C-alpha cells in the first residue's frame, strides 16, 4: 500500500519550488521595496492600522485564512473522488494559483493605502464595478460566517474538551494583549509564558470538558463532561431537531463571540490571540507532518501510516457528484480561496511592517494552508471511510487519523484526538471573527458617509457604518442560513462563492497590473482568473439549478421532516448563487473592457476618467 509520506513529499516538493523560485520572481515583479512606507506606519491609529512584527502578523494571517475548509474540503474530496485528484489539485494548484492570489491581493492593497479589493477595482473601472465587487464580497462573507459557525458548533459537540480549551486560550489572548500593548512588557519571555499556558489549556479542556446540553446518545461525551443546561430546555433551541440541541445551541454562542471580537481594537484580541493560537496550529500541522516522517521511517506509530483510500473512484465518485466542477469548489481553501483576498487586503495590509514581509506572509502563508490540506487528506487516508457524509466524515477522521499520526511520538490517542480537534477549532474561531470584521469593512465601503438628503436614507447609512449594528446584522443573517441545519447544501455553495471571489480578486490584480504598466505580463494572474471563473460559474449553476431547484423543488426531494425554514433556506441559497453568478459575469466583462482599452491605448495617451 502507498504510504502517506509520499503525499507529504509531493506537496513539499512543489511548494518548495514555488516559494524559492516563483515567489521571488513575483516579489520583483510587483517591485516590493522596504524603503516604501507601508499603510500600517502611514496611518497608524492603534485600532486597525497597527505595524506588527512579522512572526505576529504571520500568526494572525495564517490563523485567519486557515479555517475549516482546508480540513473538511480535502477529506470530503478524497472520500468522494479518491486521493489522487485531491492531491494533484493541492500540490499543483496552490503554488501556481492560490499563493499567487494571496500575494497579489496583499501587494495591490499595499499600493492602495491598505484598501480592499473592492476599492482597488473601483479605482480603475468606476464606482459601479466597485460596488458590485463589494456586494459580492459581502454576500460571500455571510456564507463564510454561517459555515464556520456551524462547523465550530459541530466540533464543540463532538469534542467538549475543545470548547473548554478554546475559552482558555481566548482569555489568555486578552491578557496577552494587555501585557504587550498596554504594559509594554518583554516580548520573548511573555511569548514563552503565554504559549505554555495555551498548551496547558489543552490539559484543562481534557479534564474539564463543557457541553451546553446533554448528548443525544448516552456515552457520547467523556464521563467528566460538565453539562450546563438540562434536556428540558432543549426543545426551545432552534434547529435542535435537525442538528441536536447541543450543536444548535453552540451556533449563536459562536456568532455572539464573533460579533464582539470583530468590534474590538485589533491589539485587544485579534493580534495576540492569533499569535498565540498560531503556535497551537504550527504544532498541530508541523507535528503531524513530522509524525508522518518519524512513524514511517521508524515504525513507531500505533497503526501503519498507509493510504486506505482508492486512488480514484471515477468521475461521479462515491456520491454521484461530478468531479468537474465540484472537486475544485469542495477542496476550496486548500488550493485557492477568495476569502484570503479579503484578509490580505482587509486586515493584513493594514498591519504589514515592511513590504518585503509580504512574500513570506502572502505567498508563504498560503503554502502553509496547503500543508494543512495535505495533513487533512493524510488523516482520512489513514482512518479510512466512516459512515456519514461531509462534516460527518471530516471531523472523526481528522481527529482520529491525526491522533494515530501523533502516536509516532508516544502521545496516546486519548490526548491526541482532543488536541487535533482543538487545532481545527483554533483555525475556525479566528477565521469566523476575522470574517465579521472584514464584513464590517465591506459594508462601510458600500454604504459610505451618511450624507443623503433623506432622513430615512441617512439612518440606514448610519446603521450600515456603525460597527456594532453592522456586525450584529451579519451574524443574524448568517444564523438564518444555518438555522435549517442544511449542511449538505450550504457547504458547496460556500465553496463556489468563495472560489468565484478568488477569480474576481485575480481580476482586480490583473486590472491593477495592466493600468500600472501597459507592458506588464498578465499571465500570472490572468490565466488562474480565467480558469477559476469558468470552473466556479459552472459549479454554482449546477448547485442552484440542478441540485437545489430541480432536485429539491421540482422533483420534491425535501425530506418529510423538512419544514418551512428548511425550504426557505434552500430558496435563499438558490437566489444567492444566481446573484453571485450575475455579479461575477458583469464584473469580468467590465474588467476585460478596461484591460483591452489600456492595452490598445497608444503610448503616451491619457487614461480615461
UniProtKB/TrEMBL annotation:
Main location: membrane
Domain CstA N-terminal residue range list: 4-382, 394-539
Bilayer topology term: Multi-pass membrane protein
Keywords (A to Z) from UniProt: Cell membrane, Membrane, Transmembrane, Transmembrane helix
Superkingdom field: Archaea
Compartment list: Cell membrane
Record-annotated membrane-spanning stretches: 6-22, 71-92, 133-156, 163-181, 187-213, 225-243, 249-267, 279-299, 319-339, 360-385, 405-430, 471-490, 496-514, 526-545, 565-592
Protein name per its UniProtKB record: Carbon starvation protein A
Phylogenetic lineage: Archaea, Methanobacteriati, Methanobacteriota, Stenosarchaea group, Halobacteria
Amino acid at each position: 500500500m502507498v504510504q502517506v509520506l509520499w503525499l507529504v513529499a509531493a506537496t513539499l516538493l512543489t511548494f518548495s519550488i514555488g516559494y524559492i523560485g516563483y515567489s521571488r520572481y513575483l516579489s520583483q515583479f510587483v517591485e516590493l521595496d522596504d524603503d516604501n512606507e507601508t499603510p500600517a506606519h502611514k496611518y497608524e491609529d492603534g485600532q486597525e492600522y497597527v505595524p506588527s512584527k512579522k512572526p505576529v502578523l504571520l500568526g494572525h494571517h495564517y490563523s485567519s485564512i486557515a479555517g475549516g475548509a482546508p480540513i473538511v474540503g480535502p477529506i470530503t474530496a478524497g472520500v468522494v473522488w479518491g486521493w489522487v485528484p485531491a492531491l494533484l489539485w493541492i500540490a499543483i494548484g496552490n503554488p501556481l494559483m492560490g499563493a499567487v492570489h494571496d500575494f497579489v491581493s496583499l501587494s495591490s492593497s499595499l499600493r492602495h493605502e491598505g484598501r480592499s479589493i473592492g476599492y482597488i477595482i473601483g479605482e480603475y473601472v468606476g464606482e459601479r464595478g466597485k460596488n458590485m465587487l463589494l456586494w459580492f464580497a459581502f454576500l460571500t462573507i455571510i456564507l463564510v460566517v454561517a459555515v464556520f459557525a456551524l462547523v465550530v458548533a459541530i466540533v464543540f459537540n463532538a469534542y467538549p474538551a475543545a470548547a473548554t480549551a478554546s475559552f482558555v486560550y481566548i482569555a489568555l489572548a486578552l491578557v496577552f494583549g494587555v501585557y504587550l500593548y498596554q504594559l509594554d512588557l518583554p516580548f520573548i519571555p511573555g511569548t514563552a509564558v503565554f504559549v505554555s499556558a495555551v498548551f496547558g489549556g489543552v490539559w484543562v479542556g481534557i479534564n474539564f470538558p463543557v457541553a451546553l446540553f446533554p448528548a443525544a446518545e448516552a456515552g457520547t461525551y467523556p464521563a467528566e463532561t460538565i453539562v450546563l443546561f438540562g434536556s428540558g430546555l432543549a426543545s426551545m433551541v432552534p434547529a435542535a431537531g435537525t442538528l441536536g440541541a447541543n450543536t444548535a445551541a453552540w451556533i449563536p454562542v459562536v456568532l455572539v463571540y464573533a460579533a464582539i471580537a470583530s468590534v474590538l481594537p485589533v491589539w485587544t484580541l485579534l493580534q495576540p490571540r492569533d499569535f498565540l493560537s498560531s503556535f497551537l496550529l504550527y504544532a498541530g500541522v508541523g507535528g503531524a507532518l513530522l509524525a508522518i516522517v518519524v512513524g514511517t521511517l521508524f515504525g513507531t506509530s500505533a497503526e501503519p501510516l498507509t493510504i486506505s483510500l482508492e486512488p480514484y473512484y471515477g468521475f461521479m465518485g462515491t456520491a454521484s457528484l461530478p468531479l468537474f466542477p465540484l472537486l475544485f469548489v469542495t477542496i476550496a481553501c486548500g488550493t485557492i480561496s477568495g476569502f484570503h483576498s479579503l484578509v490580505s487586503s482587509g486586515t493584513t495590509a493594514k498591519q504589514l511592517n515592511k513590504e518585503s514581509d509580504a512574500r513570506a506572509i502572502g505567498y508563504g502563508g498560503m503554502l502553509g494552508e496547503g500543508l494543512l490540506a495535505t495533513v487533512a487528506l493524510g488523516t482520512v487516508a489513514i482512518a479510512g471511510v466512516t459512515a456519514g457524509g461531509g462534516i460527518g466524515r471530516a471531523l472523526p477522521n481528522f481527529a482520529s487519523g491525526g491522533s494515530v499520526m501523533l502516536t509516532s511520538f508516544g502521545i496516546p490517542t486519548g490526548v491526541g484526538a482532543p488536541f487535533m480537534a482543538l487545532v481545527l477549532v483554533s483555525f475556525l474561531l479566528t477565521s469566523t471573527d476575522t470574517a465579521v470584521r472584514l464584513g464590517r469593512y465591506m459594508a462601510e465601503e458600500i454604504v459610505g458617509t451618511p450624507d443623503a438628503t433623506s432622513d430615512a436614507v441617512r439612518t440606514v447609512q448610519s446603521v450600515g457604518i456603525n460597527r456594532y449594528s453592522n456586525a450584529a446584522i451579519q451574524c443574524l443573517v448568517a444564523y438564518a442560513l444555518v438555522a435549517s441545519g442544511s449542511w449538505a447544501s450550504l457547504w458547496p455553495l460556500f465553496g463556489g462563492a468563495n472560489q468565484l471571489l478568488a477569480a474576481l480578486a485575480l481580476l482586480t490584480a490583473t486590472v491593477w497590473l495592466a493600468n500600472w504598466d501597459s507592458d506588464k505580463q498578465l499571465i500570472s494572474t490572468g490565466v488562474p482568473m480565467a480558469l477559476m471563473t469558468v470552473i466556479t460559474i459552472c459549479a454554482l449553476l449546477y448547485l442552484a439549478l440542478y441540485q437545489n431547484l430541480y432536485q429539491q423543488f421540482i422533483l420534491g426531494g425535501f425530506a418529510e421532516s423538512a419544514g418551512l425554514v428548511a425550504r426557505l433556506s434552500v430558496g435563499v441559497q438558490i437566489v444567492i448563487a444566481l446573484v453571485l453568478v450575475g455579479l461575477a459575469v458583469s464584473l469580468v466583462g467590465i474588467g476585460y473592457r478596461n484591460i483591452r482599452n489600456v492595452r490598445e491605448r497608444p503610448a503616451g495617451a491619457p487614461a480615461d476618467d
